[in-house]
Queue: 2 jobs
Job 1
Amino acid sequence: MKQLAFCVVTGLALTGCSIAEADTPEREDCMVLASDPAAQESFSERGLTTESFCDCVVAYIDAQPETEEAQMQLALEELTGEMESSEVSAEEGIGTLMAKSEEMDEETAQKMLGGIRLLGGMMNKFGEYFSAGDACPIP
């Protein structure tokens, strides 16, 4: 769980693509995620912007097959909702969601946990691409 949270926050720090996107629910959720203090510190250290990160996140999620896109959207919405309502970091929010998944109906829990895994995979991919100096990894 901590490793997944670390991947999410680390991924925030490693992005730098800029694809113009209109405000969407996913972008608004991403802006909440990117407001995590650890992410902001990483952005500052690397001269990155929250906006470019969220442009890339939205484009990446939108490019996924329908099932994966829905899982990622659900996880992002749940995570950012937890961050806002409880005023916690992304890492703490993921921990809470993992615990709450035990109380959810099985289908919702599977979608949300699948979405968290997919978001972690996205962040790993971002880390690979951006550490190599490549552009936003849109499939």
Job 2
Amino acid sequence: MTDKTIIGGLTLVGSLSAYYYAKANGKDRYPLMLIAGFFGAFIGDQIVEHRKSLVKKRPKHKRITF
């Protein structure tokens, strides 16, 4: 998965979950969707940064030559 896919997917999940929460409880949907989408994007960005740091820590394989 690419970085944009992870961030966009979590933004979508956050927005949709806030939409259904607000709809079920009779609250105003749009502010909750904006806030939840922001948090989803923030969490997605943190996950991407964590994955990048794990890749940097991984030891490189040495080539075996004969």
